[in-house]
Amino acid sequence: MLNEVHLNADPNTISTLDEPVLQTLLRDAKAIGRKLIVVVCPPLGDERELHDWDLWGPLFLCLMLASILTINASDDQGAAVFSAVFIFVWLGGLVVTINAKLLGSKIMFFQTYCAMGYCLAPICLGALFCWIIPWFFVNLLLCVIAWAWACWAALRFFRNTVNADREVLVVYPVGLFYVFFTWMVLVGI
């Protein structure tokens, strides 16, 4: 017979397994919104929000970026662009996350993955504006701002997670990761 240990024996406590689906979806949507505020407007958000990781927000942002770039692609390349963006977001995030962990990052694997995904938000906004605005030099400026914004948001998350002498080794691949997607937005792949 299995021995069960109940850490929370209060019968009045409602488990998330017992809550209605709508309440769960609203709770998750609010959490995604709070995490987006941390990235989009860092002074207004609490950095600790990203430590409570989820993959719904990064998935949504990945799908948003892939969809915007697919719309910009030619008709015969749409599926390939969508697939490539989707795969590169998740594999690139995996490589950057493994790099951070190998360099001694103090945060959990999925926390890093979550932060990398949420920091795509400025690039998604930049892609949306570049889709609307047809002028190259304006798009170039928007992409540089989106890249710097994404790197700034990621740097705020990674700061103090590794030794100061290794911080550049963690942040450099993050910058390259975002340069890749910013370049895709700029050239309109």
UniProtKB/TrEMBL annotation:
Family: Belongs to the YIP1 family.
Listed name of the protein: Protein YIPF
Entry GO terms, CC: Golgi membrane; trans-Golgi network
Pfam families: Yip1 (PF04893)
Upper lineage: Eukaryota, Discoba, Euglenozoa, Kinetoplastea, Metakinetoplastina
UniProt keyword terms in alphabetical order: Membrane, Transmembrane, Transmembrane helix
Domain Yip1 positions: 52-184
Membrane-crossing residue ranges in chain numbering: 55-73, 79-98, 110-129, 135-155, 167-186
Compartment annotation: Golgi apparatus membrane; Membrane
Gene name tied to this protein: HTBF
Membrane topology qualifier: Multi-pass membrane protein
Keyword presence, Lyase: no
One BP annotation, GO: endoplasmic reticulum to Golgi vesicle-mediated transport
InterPro entries: Yip1/4-like (IPR045231), Yip1_dom (IPR006977)
